[in-house]
Amino acid sequence: MLNFEIRKILVKPVNKIVFLVLAAALLVGSFLTLRDVTYTTEGGEVLQGISAAKELKSAKNEWKGELTEDVLRRVIEENQKILAETSDLDEASVKQQGFRDIHEMLNNGFAGFNEWEYYRADSLSPEEAAGIYQIREDSLKEYLSREEVKDTFSEKEKEFLISQWENLKTPFYYEYTEGWKALLDSQYLPTLMTLLVVILGTLVAGIFSDECSWKADSIFFSSKLGRNKAVLSKIGAGFLITTVLYWASILLFTIIILGALGVGGANCPVQLGESNWMSMYNWTYLQKYFFVTTGGYVGSMFIIFLAMVVSAVTRSTVIAVVIPFALSCAPMFLGRITIFTRIVTFFPDMLLRICTYHDEFLLCEIGGKVMGVFTFLIPLYVVLCLAIVPALYLVYKKAEVK
After folding, report:
1. In angstroms, what CA-CA distances link 65 with 58, 102, 174, 267, 287?
2. What's the pLDDT tens digit per position in 49-89?
């Protein structure tokens, strides 16, 4: 019966079109992600994708290793040497590509909390640069003491944030990380996850409503196994379709990007990325990948299960299709309204956008313990997924024939 329910999903003409849309989105997303990785040669030619990755790997791995105080001094000395020898800033930028990430890290650290100044590192002395890790901690403490944010965080939240900063392992380990940055620091992966939820919603929306629309519900429920095993088969079909399609899409996207750009840098801290400098999560890129993909799966599964419940209750495929779209897209706009800003941080769509929001101070306090909102949301929605399955079973099992 499970195979029958899965075949019903796969053979629908509209669902075949949906699969083609997903395949096209994967290919386009992969192309755009690879295209964003660039390297400029000394002759001014701009390389993209695989050819750029090859040159960047060679240049950046010259600085491979721990970014100790001595290494940071040498970076500034090399930077000052380049600037002294080259009057043209574009030419200087070409020569700085090997330590560009370190240069940007210093820009972030010395520009002030949550600020950035492109040329700030150019005015640093070697000794100033060596203190970047302490500067990072001090900038947070200074920010939390500002009058305008003094009441934004409780004392426990301030203590939590400061402890996260202090517990970050330093000195940072550095090497070429373009593959992981392209995968996790761009908007393509969150966009793919959102599209996946909408597509999955389209695929499973009819699982519980098709019999009603076909006027076959009386036959379905009067059959020997119609109110037990058949219902479980429908739930199993939704679970399997969601699981297989989600992980197949995410893993295929991952293989394309990392296969083309390289897997180096998995153990580098995410704070090396330009947009992650102030992140309170002390993850490596590999750990971030685990949280992002697992969180995305949990969020997707909850939204799809909820769409299936709506399908079972309303017996309407159209209404069920709206649920995934509404829950994955609408909260982004609701969050811009002040009264909804805090509430939407607990919506399941946040798990689709860990890449986007993990560098923001989204906190919650449970039982007197402060934690990052994603640390709370993943287990929360795992529990809700487990709770919604028996509810879905009971709702459809007891449905009346119309």
Report:
1. 14, 12, 5, 11, 19
2. 999 999 999 999 999 999 999 999 999 999 999 888 887 77
